[in-house]
Design a protein that fits this description.
- The protein has one domain (about 5-200): Jelly Rolls (Sandwich), CATH 2.60.120.
- It contains three helices and 17 strands.
- It has helices at about 25-40, 45-55, 90-95, and strands spanning about 5-10, 15, 20, 60-65, 65, 70, 75-80, 85, 105-115, 120, 120-130, 155, 165, 170-175, 180, 185-195, 200.
- The strands form five sheets. Strands 1, 4, 7, 9, 13, 16 and 17 form a seven-stranded mixed beta sheet that branches. A four-stranded antiparallel beta sheet has the order 8-14-11-12, with no helix packed on it. A two-stranded antiparallel ribbon has the order 2-3.
- A hairpin with a 2-residue loop joins strand 5 (about 65) and strand 6.
- The two termini are about 15 Å apart.
- About 30% of the residues are buried.
- The structure holds 2-oxoglutaric acid and fe (ii) ion.
- Fe (ii) ion (FE2) binds next to loops.
């Protein structure tokens, strides 16, 4: 993608064609599970994140399933040159339910494990997608020209190492380019199901 984002892990949006999740996702997830094990970490950082996030929620946060199979649990991403203005919404991106559950809300979770001296801010605008926004789509990109958000109110987040942020990714958001150190976050999507479960996926 442009600008390029380094990544360790599998994201379902990279295995989507015309609103359909491709089976290659499962192979990628399986391959990646072995890669994580190869790191020899004494704990699973995504499990820790789910536990912390779900501590006050009945039933906690579990990894979502599709066709009975557990989805990937998250992705380490390094967008040193930023993310374009975009939104994430499984209900729009996939036809039918992505998970074995119907989602009524979606969040994006990111825990920051390295941040830069300057730049790297996450900006969230109070603007939800509407059909007119397609005029701002950047050709061949996941993103939109920044003018798409117009004069919408925004919030700028500059998380510190060890902090995590949960946003509603249906609002347009972006990450500014970083200067200095690497900007690395462990991220996953979290859906709230009609039965009140919080389900994560990568
Ligand atoms: O890295 C961030 O702060 C946000 C990245 C993003 O676009 C997302 O998690 O949906
Ligand atoms: Fe996003």
């Amino acid at each position: 993608m442009d600008p390029p984002v380094m990544r360790f892990g599998v994201g379902v949006s990279d295995h989507r064609e015309g609103g359909v999740m491709m089976d290659g996702y499962w192979d990628a997830v399986e391959h990646h599970r072995k890669e994580w094990l190869g790191l020899g970490l004494p704990f699973d950082p995504f499990e820790e994140c789910r536990a912390a996030l779900g501590a006050e929620w009945p039933g906690g946060v579990s990894v979502g399933r599709r066709g009975g199979r557990e989805m990937g649990s998250g992705v380490a991403r390094e967008p040193n040159q930023g993310f374009q203005v975009h939104f994430d919404d499984a209900l729009r991106e996939f036809s039918g339910d992505l998970l074995d559950a119907t989602l009524v809300a979606q969040f994006a979770f990111n825990a920051y494990i390295s941040v830069s001296e300057s730049g790297g801010e996450t900006i969230v605008w109070r603007h939800l997608w509407g059909p007119a926004d397609e005029a701002f789509r950047l050709p061949g990109s996941y993103g939109y020209a920044e003018a798409v958000v117009g004069e919408a109110e925004s919030i700028e987040l500059s998380p510190e190492i060890g902090e995590a942020v949960l946003i509603n990714p249906r609002y347009f958001h972006a990450v500014r380019p970083s200067q200095g150190s690497r900007r690395i976050a462990l991220g996953f999507a979290v859906g709230l199901s009609t039965t009140g479960e919080l389900l994560a996926w990568g």
